[in-house]
DNA sequence: GCGACAG
DNA sequence: ATCTTGTCGC
């Protein structure tokens, strides 16, 4: 898995998006059982952020959760729900890191290369890199470094609320990450794509018998 | 050897 | 991620 991540990080491309997305997607998983995952993918219009489509599926999970190898555990389920989507989004949001990862290949990078689509990694907590706490207001941010190289941003998406760790998956740059993440937040800490996916993933877990 | 460690 | 009771703040 380490070899795969090192190879994939070489394929990552950090560059500004050369178009404005019409549809953005978000993914999330919940675990009703130790070895079963409910995966959800939502597609929203941009910049309106109206829900266009939602698909879900249950998948048996083999890999355990091991820090830095999240993509190998959740990747298969994500690929399956994404395949069910009819109105494919042109920008993807993931729960987790992009290149702000020990080997420069977090789950957002992994999926971006697999789908050949721009993606942004939005993690609720820190995994790798050095940073300073950003200001307390929405929009305040600080860069995340690996030595002297910038690998992401710690971004405040809501006043006086814990910041998010945002980094490029691939095919987007740091400014795109911060801008699209902020433009996708509707008064909540998490951007709508991941917030809604998370909502449905938990709702399904309750209303089901797996 | 010790501490950190996405979801 | 999941479990789990109360609690702080707008």
Keywords:
alpha+beta, DNA-binding, 8-stranded mixed beta sheet, 5 helices, single chain, 210 residues, archaeoglobus fulgidus dsm 4304 fold
Whole-number tally of structural domains = 1
Q: State the end-to-end CA separation.
A: 30 Å
- Beta-strand residue fraction: 25-35%
What is the CATH class name? Alpha Beta
Spell out the helices and strands N to C.
HEEEHEHEEEEHH
Rg, Cα atoms, Å:
16 Å
Could you give a short account of the major beta sheet? 8 strands, mixed
The CATH architecture is 2-Layer Sandwich
Task: Report the total helices.
Answer: 5
CATH superfamily: archaeoglobus fulgidus dsm 4304 superfamily
In short:
This protein is 28% helix and 29% strand. It is of the alpha+beta class.
Please characterize this protein's 3D structure.
- With 210 residues, this protein is an alpha+beta fold.
- The chain contains five helices and eight strands, in the order αβββαβαββββαα.
- It has one domain (2-191): 2-Layer Sandwich (archaeoglobus fulgidus dsm 4304 fold).
- The protein has helices at 2-11, 70-84, 107-115, 174-183, 192-206, and strands at 23-33, 36-45, 51-60, 91-95, 119-123, 141-146, 149-155, 164-170.
- It has an eight-stranded mixed beta sheet, with helices on both faces.
- Strand 7 and strand 8 form a beta hairpin.
- Helix 2 packs across helix 3 (107-115).
- The longest helix has 15 residues, at 70-84.
- The mean pLDDT is 97.
- It binds two DNA strands through residues 28-31, 37, 65-68, 70, 73-74, 94-97, 100-102, 106-107, 121, 123-128, 165.
